[in-house]
């Protein structure tokens, strides 16, 4: 029983998605249309990217980059700036959750004994990872889903996201001024890196993934290449992807497909969304997080640009607005002498401030 409770606690979103999928089957009993609910390309590419990023992690690449780029700073503010900006830019390519899994533990180690600096830096790293990841289609799961579901081109995607991303970068840079400035001993490099065979294997797989995102290769080719590479060179890596997230996607696909099949429900939700896509997406993300929100609302609107902006901006705000934010909190909460109350307070203040500024920007741009 304790294992079940632990699973529910750790995978709350998956459990909710599963329950919703089951309940939706009452409205729309299982039929041959179910197989068409699932966006297999999104599931496949997300899986391939997870395998690739985990593979790069095992080669020591991220540890090397972190230590190399953070080993030359003499005060806490400049070192925090390096860590936060690394989160922002690297999350564009390795996803926001992997970025935080890479940099938050390093931050805890580098700022050990400096509670105020540690909290401020991790809060800003979390915001930077969420904001930086929205720049690219592969930066986070909701982007990958919307990019595929609405058949975006790279040009169209970047035209929507680059303006808000530029504002986000400015917000992060301004916020770094508020990190306490304390003198520290110069950090030495803590790791070395020599490209291994597996590094080159994952580099090829990552290139194949990018080709699929760019619509040059079919996702099935990418899936086969990824599986073959993993089985031949590093089969244990297949245990590393976040299968709970993939299962969550599938459950929400079923839920959305079932309720979308009911004309009255579809018309009601569409009427609520009409003209309010960005605000509804942003608001709903605060409650159920932006990944499931993007899947739920995609079945009821064709205004993909506003949905894309809404779920990404909606990653700011509450602690559950982005699943990646929960990763940071859990990592910090399990650290020595963690001050959870201070973390939650600072996280809330900064995130709602960012949320407010970004919404005002979209209001000025005429998207609200």
How would you characterize this protein structure?
By secondary structure, the protein is mainly alpha-helical. It has one domain. The protein is built from 18 helices and no strands. It has helices at residues 2-10, 12-27, 40-58, 61-69, 76-94, 96-110, 115-132, 141-149, 154-175, 197-213, 219-233, 243-260, 263-273, 277-288, 290-298, 304-313, 323-333, 340-364. The mean pLDDT is 86.
Could you give a short description of this structure?
With 368 residues, the chain is an all-alpha fold.
The termini sit apart by 47 Å
Number of domains: 1
* Inertia-based shape: globular
Taking pLDDT < 50 over at least 5 consecutive residues as the criterion, the unreliable ranges are: none
The pLDDT mean sits at: 86
The run of helices and strands is HHHHHHHHHHHHHHHHHH
Strand coverage percent: under 5%
Beta strand count: 0
Count of DSSP-assigned helices: 18
Largest sheet: none
The chain-level structural class is: mainly alpha
Please outline the helices and strands:
Elements: H1 2-10, H2 12-27, H3 40-58, H4 61-69, H5 76-94, H6 96-110, H7 115-132, H8 141-149, H9 154-175, H10 197-213, H11 219-233, H12 243-260, H13 263-273, H14 277-288, H15 290-298, H16 304-313, H17 323-333, H18 340-364
List the defining traits of the structure above.
368 residues, mainly alpha, globular
